[in-house]
Design a protein that fits this description.
Rossmann fold; 2 domains; 6-stranded parallel β-sheet
Amino acid sequence: MRYYIIAGEASGDVHASHLMRAIKQEDAAARFRCFGGDMMAAEGAELVQHYRDLAYMGFWPVIKHLPTILRGMKHCQKDILEWQPDVLILVDYPGFNLKIARFIKQHSTIPVVYYIAPKLWAWKEHRIRDIKRDVDLLLSILPFEVPYYEEKHSYHINYVGNPTVDEVSAYQKEHPANADAFRKENHLDERPIIALLPGSRKQEVRDNLRRMLEAAEPYSKDYQLVLAAAPGLTDDFYEECIKMVNGKWLNAKCTVVRDQTFRLLQHSTAALVTSGTATLETALFRVPQVVCYYIKAGRLASLARRLFLKVPYISLVNLVCGEEVVPELVAEQMNVSNVRLQLASILPGGPARAAQLKGYERMANILGEPGAPARAAKIIVDLNRDKQ
């Protein structure tokens, strides 16, 4: 069968490539065509356009590049209709993908499957109308989405498990912990590690990293600070951020490692992490963490969050558990003194460390066993077999 897949960012490329691999296990004759990335191409998809050509975030970047985005969308719509796949699979990226779903439903009978459901529970709840109208099958990777969609909006959704569980589990099986090798290869000493995961975009890193570093500096005698670099940011950029913290030179050394986020977490004692999938990854490696996300105009941002966000937490760990397992310091709460206090509480001997690790076990039980791509693939292939 023929599968057309659309993923609009790096994480979607990863998840889509794993889904493709699982589909090939179910359908030996599978053919793939995609708007996506390098990992999807490596799995055998014919890459029509790379996601980086259309990956603009924020109001002004989107407005500035709107003609490029619209051309890419029209190209995608035309290509789907010409190729006539047996199924269209949309992976996250709702701003683009829901518009594609609308067009395909208006102009064809191609079934539309959505893998990694849009986060309507956080914002833009009105999109439920689009999903009900244009999506034939919705696959979720977050268990709390099932009651949200089914009980609140009377729309059936399939929870298939969380692919991050698969990724962490596979990594741990393939890479047994070897702290001596990790330290030697990255020129680290014997002190335990505090991991810093300050985000992936420049402004995000500037805002979060400097505060993380200053908060962690008093612990640098007994711990070493190690930062996981984002793929799109240069070593020179990180060096600039590390050297100057709030206008003064930082005394604590911070080592930057690249393409080793899982390996860093595997050997860390505690972590300071921005929100997003990184919070879930950190928890699955059983590393106590403080979630830190600085926002300018913090008081105003906190008010906006209370008015517009429909969930009480921003970290996936807390959202999955339905309670505060990890501390969240957001907007004006993300300051040096608060981060330092919370970090002290999760280091060995700290009063919150044991409770957080216990919370991680609850989270893991809720998420379930590995196998999300395989379960999703079986549902998608069975859908097409039934149709045929």
